[in-house]
Design brief:
The protein has 126 residues and is mainly alpha-helical. The protein has one domain. It is 68% helix and 0% strand. The protein contains 6 helices and no strands. Helix 1 packs antiparallel against helix 3, helix 3 crosses helix 4 and helix 4 packs antiparallel against helix 5. It is elongated. The protein starts with a helix and ends with a helix.
């Protein structure tokens, strides 16, 4: 059975992270690329937004007794197979997931990125 608190808390956080990311997306590309604080904030909020999605997905998988995912990308395939996540959302996640590099225990690393990734972080085109 799904524990509402384990889903609603991360959803509240996710909504706030998306507000912050939209605010960062509203600055010009030049402002973004020359402001290390904006770049760092975007990376952080993107990372914690993905982590919130993974936490929600993991709880749904466990509570519904679904198969264990092979990796983070497979987490969303499991939800799709169960009819919880629609095909279009699963495709978008799969496309983004192809370019995300697993580092440590989470999808996006907290290490260094090549400067060429800055515009991709700002626009969401990873």
């Amino acid at each position: 059975m799904v524990n509402q608190d384990k889903v609603e808390g991360p959803i509240r956080h996710l909504r706030q992270y998306l507000i912050y990311l939209r605010e960062l997306a509203s600055i010009t590309e030049t402002q973004f690329l020359t402001d290390p604080h904006a770049i760092g904030s975007a990376r952080y909020y993107l990372t914690v937004a993905i982590e919130a999605c993974l936490d929600i997905a993991g709880h749904l998988i466990a509570s519904e007794g679904l198969r264990a995912p092979h990796d983070y990308k497979d987490t969303f395939r499991v939800l799709n197979e169960a009819g919880i996540l629609p095909n279009d959302a699963t495709m978008t996640i799969a496309i983004i997931g192809r370019s995300a590099k697993p580092v440590g225990t989470r999808l996006l690393g907290r290490g260094r990125y090549n400067d060429s990734r800055k515009p991709a972080i700002r626009t969401g085109r990873l």
